[in-house]
Amino acid sequence: MLRGDPRGMGVFYDFIKVKPLKIVANANFGLAGEVAKKLTSDTPLDIIGINFTPDGSFPKGRPDPLIPENRQETISRIKETGADFGVAWDADADRCFFFDETGEFIQGYFITALLAKTFLKRYPGGKIIFDPRLTWANIDTVRENGGIPIINKCGHSFFKDRMRREDAVFAGETSAHYYFRDNFYADNGMIPFMVMLEILSASEKTLSEILAPLKNKYFVSGEINREARNTQRILEIIEVKYREATIEHIDGLSVEYPDWRFNLRSSNTEPLLRLNLEAKSKELMEEKQHQVMKLIEQIENDFN
Asked: Is residue 195 in some structural domain?
């Protein structure tokens, strides 16, 4: 049994409860492979490792599972092997990404909601922090499970600072960074993997079945990145366009209507605008995604 929580407030996971699951695990030539082997060496798990040998040259390209083309190897192996789920990490293993038993990639948004529910069972009434890119599933899940939802600006330093100030039990970003009070309020990519093992071991349902209530209620675009000049001016014009909506500036621009909302923010390091949009139906999500992207294009054309 491996215990977390240096403050003596509980355990992150209990290997005694883990069932003999089959898992495809992609370390992307980073640190996670060696760590995962040691963590699971005395368990009944069947780990199908991909790219477990560390290699700083990253021979298959940038080790970032958020890039859609980087997911295909993991998806294919899940389908080939009939695995119970898949997991992938970035190079330094501070982010953790999941795939269900069908090979479908799961947005970090839904994983945050699932982990929030789990940690609120352990710490009733706790505070849960998440970012403004996508919010409805997290707000509803936290409140339904007796917790206090808090929306915070994206980024490591902002989340860790807010975690400490609020003494929050858990926090999650859409980017698949997950933070834990019992890990000194810091993020960690291995803890979500082990907690997921406990969740699935305690349930008779598959991962897709566990997540179905969320995915059938909240329809999301996924993060859409677009190169853009004059990003600040674009944000200002779009805010005027949607001025009748509820507007927030926690991070970038958040625009909310009763049945759809979006967050648009500029990258801190690249000339990019990042759009995340959610709606109460798939059709509305697709319609509004097209509407916002077309508006951005029109504004850009007006600059030229």
From this structure: no
